[in-house]
Design a protein that fits this description.
- The chain has 612 residues and is of the alpha/beta class.
- It contains 26 helices and 14 strands.
- The strands form 2 sheets. Strands 1, 2, 3, 4, 5, 6, 7 and 8 form an 8-stranded mixed β-sheet that branches.
- A hairpin with a 5-residue loop joins strand 13 and strand 14 (328-337).
- Helix 14 runs antiparallel to helix 15 (408-420), helix 20 (503-512) crosses helix 21 (517-530) and helix 23 (550-561) packs antiparallel against helix 24.
- The longest helix is centred in the N-terminal third of the chain and has 21 residues, at 24-44.
- The protein starts with a strand and ends with a helix.
């Protein structure tokens, strides 16, 4: 994998989200001004803007001195009317890159240092300070040696002090001791960094794209490797219930197709969960799209609907909402047949791609299978897996593989669902099947599969390392967070480390997707162990009472917080249930709660129910 040394500069507007809520017009004006200044100065100092993301930017330079001089010039320019409060961080480090992204400590440290900066200030790492220390026009001031999350060694942080730049106060610096904690990692700057880190470093030319919508003054030219971050909303549906899967799968299919070109789709599962929550609050139309885009840091929102007629005719339409200008492209419509659903997806993706860009359509990615039965079963199985309904997920994913045995992503997801359904043999077989078919996976899914395979094969350290590399690039992606949390939860006790370290990652999963079952179950377990009945009951209220996990967690509640009578009642209910899913899930409960008085009765019940 290619690597190189680069000076990386992050810059974002301080307080932009609050300003958007107070005065949206002024917020857009300031963001436009910031972008204008960055475009001029970064080019002047020999750098390149890798990605604009929300109210910030990721820039790359081949010279540390040029990167710092550019940062100073940007801050000086932004003092003029109307002033823009921006914070900037710069680091010199080794970065790795391929066609899917740029990552490594070089990117991580730069973004973390930017999050420590203040309005009107430029903070740099020790490596940058060393490079510029003899430069006559640059002066630095050492502030602190700071621990940064997932960076092995503490980093020295310096402020650039010439040109009357703002410098963090002693009180600010004192607070940096928390820089390695969750609040710093998931702050405003990090959501945006996650988007930018998914773009390829602009110093490496993979393709050149010029976007042109033929709107005169609205013509937009993008630099090489600049990609449009896009939030794809769940599609509405009208028609027969049996055909609903097509609408539910449309977002995933379009994300797969569009990700090969100029678009950078955000996590569709996070968007689906977020959209449901906001729609429940009465938001729809542009206010809904802008709120979703603000949370996931997207420049575009794709929304649409699908209609299936009784005669098998299917029609789909989609529109692109540009968040900054509030302009809408579309609606663009396509018609087809149920049996030709994937052709319909292809045609709609091509129409969207062509309308937004004049780039080569061959950049569109391939879909993972051309079998509609396999697609339908996979979408439904994936939904059940994320909801924590593992037995039904196994059945549906197995159905998808029966329809198309080469469906690699279905094998991977089956392995995950089977493990949590306590079917070890199926889980290990499925992961090897997925591994043998990995050429059909996207580069990101190959990396996820690699980490998961290490996890199943008891390579705990390697699995953790692979998940942490993914975590550095995709800090809000539920599957990455859940994978890292699982490694820590299951292997830390065997490595002499506290399993409690896993909880924060599962909690972060629920921030991105409140309905992610496995994360919810682990957080429930932790709340029971901690004796936090209020938190436990709050999460229990979100469990589907029909779920195979509902009764086992009622047992957890009874043994962690309930009376002897409550324990007797839940043991009887488990005894009557008697099915393998409940028995296996309850076995996990018994193992987790062995230190609670009376829990051994649950263990004895499980042993007798299995005939052991």
């Amino acid at each position: 994998m290619p690597r190189q040394l680069a000076a990386i500069m992050f810059a974002d507007i301080v307080g932009y989200t609050a300003l958007m809520q107070e005065d949206e017009r002024r917020a857009k004006l300031l963001r436009d001004r910031q972008r204008e200044v960055l475009e001029q100065r970064v080019s002047e100092f020999g750098g390149e803007i890798v990605q604009f993301y929300g109210d910030g930017a990721l820039c790359g330079f081949q010279s540390a001195i040029q990167a710092v001089e550019c940062a100073v010039a940007v801050q000086v320019d932004l003092r003029d009317e109307p002033p823009v409060s921006v914070r900037i961080g710069v680091h010199l480090g080794d970065v790795a890159f391929d066609k899917t992204g740029v990552y490594g400590d070089g990117v991580n440290v730069a973004a973390r240092i930017e999050s420590l900066s203040v309005a009107g200030g430029v903070l740099v790492s020790g490596k940058i300070a060393e490079e510029v220390k003899n430069h006559p026009r640059i002066s630095t001031q050492f502030l602190a040696e700071v621990p940064l999350k997932n960076v092995k060694e503490p980093q020295k942080v310096f402020a650039i002090t010439n040109a009357d730049l703002a410098v963090p106060t002693p009180k600010d610096v004192k607070g940096w001791g928390k820089a390695g904690g969750k609040a710093w990692f998931f702050g405003k700057g990090w959501a945006k960094w996650a988007a930018s880190a998914a773009a390829v470093l602009a110093l490496v030319a993979v393709y050149s794209v010029v976007s042109n919508r033929g709107q005169g003054s609205d013509e937009r030219a993008s630099t090489p490797l600049t990609r449009e971050s896009i939030a794809i909303m769940p599609f509405t549906f009208a028609g027969l219930a049996d055909d609903r899967w097509m609408a539910e799968g449309m977002a995933m299919n379009l994300a797969t197709k569009l990700s090969g070109g100029i678009f950078l789709p955000k996590d569709i599962n996070q968007i689906r969960s977020l959209a449901e929550e906001l729609e429940g609050q009465g938001l729809n139309g542009p206010p809904l799209y802008k709120n979703v885009a603000g949370v996931v840091e997207a420049d575009l929102v794709l929304y649409g609907g699908l209609t299936a007629e009784p005669d098998g005719t299917v029609s789909a339409s989609a529109s692109l909402f540009e968040v900054l200008s509030e302009e809408v492209v579309g609606p663009l419509s396509q018609e087809g047949r149920v049996e030709g659903y994937l052709d319909l997806v292809n045609e709609l993706a091509l129409a969207l791609f062509s309308e937004w860009s004049d780039a080569d359509p061959s950049l569109l990615a391939d879909l993972p299978t051309d079998d509609p039965i396999a697609q339908k079963a996979f979408f439904e199985g994936d939904h059940e897996f994320r909801a924590g309904n593992y037995i039904s997920a196994v059945d549906l994913l197995s159905e998808a593989i029966e329809a198309d045995s080469t469906f690699s992503i279905a094998h991977y997801r089956l392995s995950q669902a089977a493990l949590y359904a306590w079917n070890w043999d199926l889980s290990r077989q499925a992961v090897e099947d997925a591994w043998n078919l990995r050429s059909g996976l996207s580069p990101l899914n190959v990396r996820l599969l690699t980490a998961w395979r290490d996890f199943l094969n008891n390579n705990a350290d390697r699995a953790e390392e692979n998940y942490r590399l993914l975590y550095d690039e995709y800090p809000q992606r539920p599957e990455v967070l859940a994978g890292l949390g699982s490694v820590l939860a299951y292997y830390n006790p065997l490595r002499g480390r506290p399993s409690r370290d896993a909880v924060e990652y599962f909690e972060d999963v629920l921030e991105a997707d409140p309905n992610y079952g496995e994360a919810k179950y682990h957080v429930l377990d932790a709340a029971a162990r901690d004796g936090d009945e209020q938190k436990f009951n709050r999460l229990m209220g979100t469990l589907n009472p029909e779920s195979s996990q509902a009764l086992p967690f009622e047992a957890v509640s009874a043994f962690a917080f309930g009376s002897r009578g409550a324990q007797d009642e839940v043991v009887l209910r488990l005894e009557e249930a008697g099915t393998d899913p409940v028995v296996y899930a309850a076995a996990r409960v018994a193992a987790l709660l062995h230190h609670y008085p009376g829990a051994e009765r649950l263990g004895r019940l499980l042993l007798s129910s299995r005939g052991s």
